[in-house]
Amino acid sequence: HFKTQHVAYRKTGLEWEILGDLGARLHHKEEAKEAYQRCLDATRYSHKPWSKLLDMYTEEGDIQRTLQVAVRCAAYLTAEYGELAVSAF
């Protein structure tokens, strides 16, 4: 809707993530993918959009993007695990 009217729209990272989930649930894959990508551009950083994009790129057979996102997921989880391990001590 916003694209057809050429209106700039701003949302938070969480809102983009929710819109991505909604688009995926309604089988609007391109809109969901765009929402997840916009979520990653926001200041909020979450593993969920990376995971969802990994699934989407895998289904599409886009090997290059699948590998790039897999590396990002691994890096995110490694950093998150490192923080948890440090805070445990």
Quick summary:
By secondary structure, the chain is an all-alpha fold.
What does this molecule look like?
This protein is mainly alpha-helical. 79% of the residues lie in helices and 0% in strands. The radius of gyration is 15 Å and the shape is globular. The chain has helices at 2-5, 13-25, 29-41, 47-60, 63-88. The model has no long low-confidence stretch (mean pLDDT 82). Helix 2 (13-25) packs antiparallel against helix 3, helix 3 (29-41) runs antiparallel to helix 4 and helix 4 packs antiparallel against helix 5.
Defining traits:
mainly alpha, 89 residues
Please specify the SSE layout and strand pairing.
Blueprint: H1 2-5, H2 13-25, H3 29-41, H4 47-60, H5 63-88
Helix pairs in contact: 2-3, 3-4, 4-5
Tertiary shape? globular
Largest sheet: none
- The low-confidence parts are none
Mean pLDDT: 82
